[in-house]
Amino acid sequence: MKERIVSGMRSTGKLHLGHYLGVIDNWVKLQNDFESYFFVADWHALTTKYDKTETLKQDVKDVVIDWLASGIDPEVSTIYVQSLIPEIAELNVYLSMVTPQNWVERDPTLKDMAKILRNKEGDAQISYGLMGYPVLMSADIMALNAQNVPVGIDQVAHIEITRDIARRFNNIYKTEFFNEPKPLLNKCSLICGLDGNKMGKSFNNDIKISDDEETTTKKIMTAITDTNRIRKDDKGNPENCLVAYKYWEIFGTKEEKAQVCSGCTTASVGCAQCKRALAEVINKKFAPIREKRRYYEAHPEIVEEIIRTGSDRARCEIQKTVNEVRNIIGMY
Ligand code: SF4
């Protein structure tokens, strides 16, 4: 029997290369070795965007299309939408009862969000739903009683609270029902945004998986380079090239990187030429993914079928967990 993994992504709409390299590529590599469940976390999106729901449905579909195009195989992995499975919300209620308030309050992400979500008066705008998101996230994982959760290093604290909640539930109800899930650390490349900061849709510094060749090239031409290299005949230093060479490190072959270094340090290649070559390499890598993406965009009924089938399959498994939890607690 394969061990189970579960992981999700907020319904943020079209995904960018940070999502691809940091998460999806890893899922694609793991999906054959584990019984894999991947979900679009649309309830989590509501924790901060409850007043901006006009694009929510399309955002969910766009996330799924990017996954499928990038190689998540719906015949191998179960793809589902969180809000199509009400039993996750039920489990969230049971877990909320056994989770001490201070466990939730110590979540580092909540503190970061409080800084971002300030109203005009400067007060933190944390809703009850956002406050409880570490428990909802635990419910997402525990609903499938997964043994492993693929995560980045910055999310390990989230898995810790899930382990704590699982342990506490087992202790209170004298059961060994819940696994204490382990973080499965992503082996991935971190990519920064075109301005050198964290890549993000809202920072306007991202390259989308769905961007066409022309858009990608235009965006890459804006990537920060070695700021000391002002004229083409100034010799550059790839180590000081804050974005463009970082991308070469991720996407270039050994030979390409050696060529870039030589062209840069001898000033035989200018930054514009270097970035145009980089755009070509990135466009080549994403060409088959974009082609697949266009196929799914042209066939929304297939995407819908994949979402419905996966959500039904996940719901069956989750119902088993929640029924067992009801029995363990002694619900009516
Ligand atoms: S030539 Fe390439 S590596 Fe060198 S500074 Fe310009 S963009 Fe960066």
User: Mean pLDDT, rounded to whole units?
Assistant: 93
- Give start-end ranges of low-pLDDT stretches: none
CATH H-level homologous superfamily name of the largest domain: HUPs
At the first level of CATH, the class of the largest domain is Alpha Beta
Helix content: 40-55%
Strand percentage, roughly? Answer: 5-15%
C-alpha end-to-end distance = 33 Å
CATH topology of the largest domain: Rossmann fold
Rounded Rg: 22 Å
Topology, number of strands: 5
- Overall outline: elongated
Query: Main β-sheet, in a few words?
Result: 3 strands, parallel
Q: Give the domain tally.
A: 2
Bound molecules: iron/sulfur cluster
**Structural class category:** mainly alpha
List the helices and strands and how they pair.
Blueprint: E1 4-10, H1 17-30, E2 35-41, H2 42-49, H3 56-70, E3 78-81, H4 86-98, H5 101-105, H6 108-116, H7 128-131, H8 133-142, E4 148-151, H9 156-172, E5 182-185, H10 213-220, H11 244-251, H12 254-265, H13 271-298, H14 300-329
Parallel strand pairs: 1-2, 2-3, 4-5
The structure holds iron/sulfur cluster.
Iron/sulfur cluster (SF4) binds next to helix 11, helix 12 and helix 13.
